[in-house]
Structures are given as C-alpha cells and as structure tokens.
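Re: How this chain folds, sequence and tokenised backbone to follow
How to read it: Take the token row as a discrete description of the fold.
Start of record: The labelled sequence and token lines come straight after this line.
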Amino acid sequence: MLEAEIFEIISHGGDARGYAYESLKAAREGDFEKADELLEKAQEELDIAHNTQTKLIQAEINGEDLKMSLLMVHAQDQLMTAIAEKSLIEQMVGMCKEFKRE
C-alpha cells in the first residue's frame, strides 16, 4: 500500500511539473489562455499529490509505522520541487503577460 501512495506522489508531482513547463512555453508563444489552463491542470495534479502526502503524514501521526525509504525521499523531493517550480513559472507567465502588454 505505501509503495502505491509513494508512486502516486511521484507521478502526480511529475505531471504537475510537465503542465507547468508547458504553460511557460504557451506563455512565451503568447497563448495566455492555454498557459492559464495548463497552470490550473498543474495545480490539480499538485493537489492530488499533496493530499496523498497528507494522508501519509496523518497515518504516521496516528501511530502507523511508515518505513522511510529512498523512494519516499524521492517522492517528497519531487513534490517539493514541483511546487517550487510551479510557483516560479506562475511568476514568469505573469511577466510574459506584462511584456506582451507593453
């Protein structure tokens, strides 16, 4: 069970990063509607991954013995990186919009 949840975090975190970078590409091409839609998809993926992470944290708080593994560390790293990159890409998309207005 734990392994499936770990892979869920990795998978959805990776999908979120992919959508975020697609969003940046769309913004650089001037397609801001598509960029915004892709950022929304990225957030949906992050929400799924974060909810899974929260379930694991709650299970540990409730006394369940969750073995820490390299795979678990990788999942956490993937999620945190995806969150940070999406945040930066949102700012970059905003900058593209501002440059387009000028």
Q: What stands out?
A: The mean pLDDT is 96. The chain is about 85% helix and 0% strand. The two ends are 53 Å apart (CA to CA). Helices lie at 2-28, 32-61, 70-101.
